[in-house]
Write a structure and sequence with these properties.
46% of the residues lie in helices and 23% in strands. It is of the alpha/beta class and 194 residues long. Strand 2 and strand 3 form a beta hairpin.
């Protein structure tokens, strides 16, 4: 899937910025489709998980995965062009340091001690752990980040896309065709061809 990175990086900087923003509109849906596929090791709860801090303040994250009857709170960080692609491929634990919002801090707390965080997704659930979703990653990056932060798993959008292509997932193909059609319609209209 290095071809995906090349699509963003090849050409002028503004191309990468534009494509990163377009991709950012629907990249979470790619992960949802991946988790709904029968080949996926996870199932997805269609309710997003809300975590509550010690003051009962709510923070809603991206996904709640289920595997073998256990729930995993998940947050996605797919920063492609940001800071000159510095955070696209997960290579080391330091790459998480710039995420300082309370929601991410609570997510990290749940990674270390899942039972310390109250989680609701439709109803209250007892999380067994956490799953970080990143844009892409190298094997060493996955291992060192899992060890340092205590994540149950680290997924990448890059691998989800690769799986969906390999699985010939029709929902994924339909999603891409829909957005391709919408973009085509917009650009045709902007050219006055409607």
């Amino acid at each position: 899937m290095d071809d995906l990175a090349k699509v963003f990086k090849d050409g002028p900087r503004e191309k990468g910025s534009f494509l990163s923003r377009v991709f950012g509109i629907f990249n979470e849906e790619i992960v949802r489709i991946w988790a709904r596929d029968v080949h996926s090791p996870y199932n997805i709860n269609e309710n997003r998980p809300t975590l509550y801090d010690k003051d009962n303040k709510p923070y809603t994250l991206d996904f709640l995965f289920e595997k073998n009857g256990k729930y995993y709170v998940s947050e996605m960080k797919c920063e492609i062009q940001y800071n000159n692609y510095r955070f696209w491929r997960l290579e080391n634990p330091k790459q998480l340091n710039h995420h300082k919002k309370n929601a991410f801090k609570l997510f990290l707390q749940a990674a270390k001690e899942p039972s310390s965080v109250k989680v609701k997704a439709g109803s209250f659930v007892n999380p067994a752990g956490t799953v970080l979703v990143w844009g892409a990653a190298c094997e060493e990056g996955v291992q060192t980040v899992k060890e340092q932060y205590g994540f149950s798993d680290i997924l990448t959008v890059e691998n989800c896309i690769s799986d969906l292509i390999q699985w010939s997932n029709s929902e994924y193909v339909a999603l891409l065709e829909k957005y391709e059609s919408w973009c085509g319609s917009l650009f045709e209209a902007l050219k006055g061809n409607n």
